[in-house]
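Lecture 7 notes: from sequence to structure.
We start with the chain below.
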Amino acid sequence: MDTSTSSRSRVVGETVTRLADDRVGLGRALVNLARRVIAAVAAVARRVGGWLASTITPAGWLLVGLVAGGAVGWAVFGLVEAAVVAVTAAVLLAVSVPFLLASAGLHVRLELDRDRVVAGSEVGASLHVHNPTARISPPGIVDIPVGAGLVEAELPLLLGRAEHVEPVRIAAPRRGVIEVGPMTIVRGDPIGILRRAVSWPQVERIHVHPVVVAIPSTSAGAIRDVDGVATTRIIDEDLEFHGFREYVAGDSPRHVHWKSTAKADRLMVRQYEETRRATIAVLLDVRAGEYGEQPGAAEAFELAVSAAASLAAQGLRDGREVRFITDAGVGERGLRRTTSIRALPTRDRVSLLDATCSLAVAPDAQPIEDVARMAAEAYPATTLAFTVTGPRIDIDRVRRTAFALPLGARSVTVRCEPEAEPTMRAAGSMTLITIGRLGDLGRLIARGAIG
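Predicted structure tokens for the same chain:
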């Protein structure tokens, strides 16, 4: 390598500046050029290798091997049979190439007739495929990923500028969020030698809501007056009239009751019982151990989710303030393990049911008694609490859960055990309901379980 270096100094005032010139020789330039060429070739080779791996099927690689082996057998040993094999394999490869063409120019779009359904139903969809070019597009198959499954839609031959609409049915058997897409068109020859897949990035989401039932509105809120339930606290202004008392300095003149003043010969003012707006808390137990062993545990938890969603939705329908609360899992803050609760959005029925689609059991969730205690601290104005749990809860824990709620709040525990006999036990402000099917919940409440 030839490298020449020269330097010179220049004095400006008291500053000495040294200027150096490095001249890189031809050898280093060639090395750098060679490195860039090798990197570019390697990048192209990776792309070509990836394309070949995704395009040539195992049957195609067999034909490639036959072409190479037949050519060697004919060139080295002069075997005519080897030449025939090589030519036949090469012809099959060449014939399969046209089947890969004309797929990249297609426009594919999926339209859902709805994006929210109830578990156990279906979603209708329309697959729109448009050929914007003047070329003929051969038949193919459109693969539509649906959650962990796959739906295949057959694509016919499309002439230039033609469009095809293919109806698609998507099953939604269970609660959850289903992602549909991205779609892929697979082109290939009838023999299965070559294949080409072109994907479109469109992804749609389907919220599969839990099954809910209507609950009698006369009892769902446990409140029958206009604004709430009357308390024993006496205040000067509200809706529930209590009595009269003597006027004291600072009372508003508009509260003076003149007829009573005339009879008592002194100023008398009205008094009222304080009323509270009905606040309903729905506590869903997500601790895995409360629902037994699989496969029955999954059915019990789905029953619990549906029951909790039904209670919360009915509360919203009745115009109550509703809190839907679950355990939020275990976290870490510094060296400490922390527990917390999660309040699902209850602005409206749709947002509530959307949020229930992602609910799942957690092995390390805290007991429902602790969830009730934290909910009481976060929402002390709760007047009615529904605790929805699995079949393994006992009566002692039901009592502890009720005692953890705010003072004066009504406690209703809904115990979900699939196919169990529906029962109800009430003691003071505490009620225990056992349901075996979702329809049992509404019937028990209608018979006075919450009234």
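Points to note: Residues 278 and 320 are 6 Å apart (CA to CA). The chain has four domains: 24-98, 107-209, 224-276, 279-449.
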